[in-house]
Specification:
Layout: H1 3-26, H2 34-50, E1 74-76, E2 86-87, H3 90-104, E3 110-117, E4 120-127, E5 130-136, E6 142-144, H4 147-150, E7 167-175, H5 178-190, H6 199-207, H7 212-217, E8 221-231, H8 238-247, E9 257-260, H9 262-275, E10 283-290, H10 293-299, E11 309-313, E12 318-330, E13 336-347, E14 350-356, H11 360-365, E15 373-377, E16 385-389, H12 403-406, E17 418-423, E18 430-435, H13 441-451, H14 464-472, H15 487-491, H16 506-519, H17 524-530, H18 538-547, H19 551-555, H20 558-576, H21 588-610, H22 622-633, H23 635-647, E19 665-669, H24 677-686, E20 690-692, E21 701-704, H25 710-718, E22 722-723, H26 725-732
Parallel strand pairs: 2-11, 19-20, 19-21, 21-22
Antiparallel strand pairs: 1-6, 3-9, 3-10, 4-5, 4-7, 7-8, 10-11, 12-13, 12-15, 13-14, 15-16, 17-18
Helix pairs in contact: 1-2, 13-14, 17-18, 20-21, 20-22, 22-23
């Protein structure tokens, strides 16, 4: 591999890892297994090691994955909260021991071997024995304050037993038991709602809920296993810490081993692998830690991980079975998703008969054909994935899978035409086949079910079966039509057949009527998300809702037009750049002309950033802007808006037309005493102001809290007024 090829591959891998980090840490919606993710990251690390000239400090191999999300106050850890290096390989585990032996000058090292819990990392701070704060790992030095949600965990004591240090940070993992996960999914299945993928993702998503009552209903659990900052120090080894945590009354790991040397550690890893399926929490590996704290401090840590610990990860559970058919499902956005129909096989304690195949490109890449012997992986997923096929076991004449040919070029539900399109990650990553008929009954039923889901308008009772029946009987064409369905019609709805009727009932119908009326008062962001606008996910809907007053304002949004204008200017600048490779300059005069043009383009882009796009996050990009404007300008969007007007539904955004901050731009920095950053942003927007991420001469105020950093220094340098939270609230009245 040449240096140029290596650089290109490194850039590609970094982008891929960053995207997967975002889906895993922030969205709790990973697309690939831990094993595949670790393989990507390892490939990147090896390339950076082989070509050090391309290594950078901001590479995802050199930093902790960031789990921070909007809506939570950020808090600094007293002691950094790092992640762990990991391996699937015994040789690398022994190399870890050899490195420590060399650094410490002895081969006689004591370790603890502990379960690696598959949950969300958290740090608890106890002061004088009382719980004062729970913070996620975040980006290592600071994370999200989730204290209110952590206090709902019934097994977490709010006060330590016995003598406690003045201040101590105790680290652990928040998780859901398999039993609780199955209970929640059983409820969702009964309501015909989409099932959650696995306990880890649900636990991570739950602790980041803004509604603590909803968090409490999901019965999270916690287990503690390590220590950060402690004053005064009370233990000097990991083995002693395990005993101290138990004495304080904290929930701890069910089993751990104190061993001498790497041979004993390897033996106990095998024992843990045999026992782990009986634990209450998901366990995807073993953590081997140097036990002595003095030795831990001596060997130190990198910016990302301690040198004194490593995670040995177990390979995911797999099984082999025969692929009997590939069926096609149509989702709410029209994406055609292939599903593997399998000979039933027992895998990780449950019988599996279906598995996801992602998309046609993935099927062809793995060369999977009907009739193949295939290997499937569960890895905690409800619907596992097909890993690979075995061509040597393939029946003669098995054709290459061709989705277009299988469905005859038409949607299997409505018969409409299908087309290959680029799709957003929320639908299915990459390129997929999509039904072009917006009024396809499968899409209509999917949109109605989503419209009523808890994350949208929370109209309980309208799950998949009810939605499909309402669409089938032509009671609902667009989601708002649900408001025109009478109580009597809902109550007498037959969800069964003529021979075996299953009537929905008045009690269920009454609940729907009450819930749909309550939804009328929900804000613009909820309605925007609920209407399934292409490319607009939950976070994007929230951002758009904060920046627009009504649907009418959004439909011809000046902000979205500005986003598109900036994208066009950026593309023009890239094409006209003096050093452009795709469009090389023809002469020195041409270069001079381009330089002058690019300066003008830069000025226009800067004016947009400082003006209508000040504080606009990356979530609102050109793809979102184009699809949103196109949707509301087209027939489906216009039809939806007309129906909302007829129903008298006019959801309101959080932007005020006038207010104390009208025409002003504010920057928030540091940790505010009582307001979360998200709350402060909403107050600024509601008072007519804009929020920016950087300080400039055009900044009106800098709202500064504790531990304000470079932004505060920049404000002082430029003479920008700095206000504290108390002054901010006084200005708001």
């Amino acid at each position: 591999m040449t240096p140029a090829e290596a650089q290109s591959k490194i850039v590609q891998l970094r982008a891929e890892v960053v995207r997967h980090d975002e889906r895993y840490h922030r969205q709790a919606k990973p697309e690939i297994s831990d094993f595949d993710y670790d393989a990507l990251k390892l490939e990147l690390a090896k390339l950076e090691e082989r070509f050090p000239q391309f290594a950078t400090k901001d590479s995802p191999t050199q930093r902790v994955g960031d789990d921070r999300v909007q809506g939570f106050k950020e808090v600094a850890h007293r002691q950094k909260m790092l992640s762990l290096d990991n391996t699937y390989n015994e040789t690398e585990l022994r190399a870890f021991h050899a490195r420590l032996a060399k650094l410490l000058g002895t081969d006689d090292l004591r370790y603890t071997v502990e379960p690696k819990i598959d949950g969300l990392a958290v740090s608890l701070t106890y002061e004088e024995g009382k719980l004062v704060r729970a913070v996620t790992r975040g980006k290592g030095d600071r994370g999200d304050d989730v204290t209110a949600n952590a206090r709902t965990i019934r097994t977490l004591p709010h006060e330590l037993k016995g003598a406690a240090p003045k201040v101590v940070e105790i680290r652990g993992e928040i998780y859901l038991t398999v039993a609780e996960f199955n209970r929640i999914n059983a409820e969702r299945a009964a309501a015909e709602e989409e099932l959650y993928a696995n306990p880890r993702n649900l636990a991570a998503g739950t602790i980041k809920q803004l509604d603590s009552a909803e968090v409490a209903r999901r019965k999270l659990e916690i287990v503690l296993y390590s220590m950060g900052y402690c004053e005064p120090e009370v233990v000097d080894s990991q083995a002693e810490l395990q005993k101290k945590l138990k004495a304080w009354g904290l929930p701890v790991v069910e089993r751990y081993w104190t061993v001498r040397g790497i041979d004993e550690a390897w033996e106990k890893i095998g024992e843990l692998d045999r026992l782990r399926h009986d634990f209450a929490y998901g366990t995807d590996g073993a953590v081997v830690k140097l036990s002595d704290f003095t030795q831990q401090r001596e060997v130190g840590a990198t910016d990302k991980a301690p040198r004194w610990a490593i995670a040995y990860k177990f390979k995911p559970d797999t099984a082999r079975t025969r692929l009997r058919a590939i069926t096609i499902q149509v989702g709410k956005t029209g994406i055609l998703s292939p599903v593997a129909e399998l000979d039933p096989v027992l895998l990780a304690g449950s019988t599996i008969s279906r598995a996801t195949l992602h998309n046609e490109d993935e099927i062809r890449r793995k060369d999977i054909r009907v009739g193949d012997l295939v290997e499937i992986e569960k890895a905690g997923e409800v619907i596992p994935a097909v890993l690979q096929s075995f061509p040597d076991e393939r029946p003669a004449g098995a054709p290459v899978f061709d989705l277009f040919a299988v469905v005859g070029g038409h949607c299997p539900v409505c018969g409409g035409k299908i087309a290959r399109v680029e799709v957003a990650a929320e639908d299915a990553e990459g390129v997929a086949w999509k039904c072009q008929n917006y009024d396809c009954s499968a899409q209509r039923a999917g949109r109605l079910g989503f419209f009523c889901s808890r994350r949208a308008l929370a109209i309980d009772g309208v799950g998949g079966v009810v939605a499909a029946k309402l669409v089938e009987l032509d009671h609902v064409k667009d989601p708002p039509d649900l408001y025109d369905v009478t109580l009597e019609t809902l109550a007498t709805l037959n969800l069964g057949t003529a021979e075996e009727p299953r009537v929905f009932g008045e009690k269920n119908a009454t609940k729907i009527v009450a819930a749909r009326e309550a939804a009328r008062s929900l804000p613009l962001e909820k309605w925007l998300y609920a209407l399934s606008v292409p490319d607009v996910g939950e976070t994007t809907a929230r951002e758009l809702g904060r920046r627009h007053r009504t649907f009418a304002d959004l439909a011809d949004s000046a902000l979205l037009h500005a986003v598109l204008k900036k994208a066009g200017l950026g593309a023009q600048r890239e094409w006209e750049a003096p050093a452009s490779r795709k469009n090389p300059a023809k002469s020195d005069e041409d270069k001079a002309r381009r330089k002058e043009l690019c300066a003008r383009l830069d000025a226009e882009i800067a004016a947009l950033d400082a003006g209508p796009l000040a504080g606009v996050p990356a979530d609102i990009g050109p793809a979102v802007a184009a699809s949103t404007l196109e949707f509301f300008a087209g027939k489906p969007g216009q039809r939806l808006l007309a129906k909302l007007r007829k129903l008298g539904i006019d959801p309101q955004g959080t932007v005020a037309t006038t207010g104390v901050f009208t025409g002003k731009t504010l920057v928030i920095t540091g940790t505010l005493p009582s307001l979360k950053r998200d709350e402060a942003e909403q107050k600024i927007l509601a008072a007519g102001g804009k929020v920016s991420g950087s300080v400039s001469k055009k900044t009106s105020y800098v709202l500064a809290g504790d531990e304000a950093g470079s932004k505060l220094d920049k404000a002082k340098e430029l003479g920008v007024p700095v206000i504290a939270e108390a002054e901010f609230l006084r200005m708001l009245g």
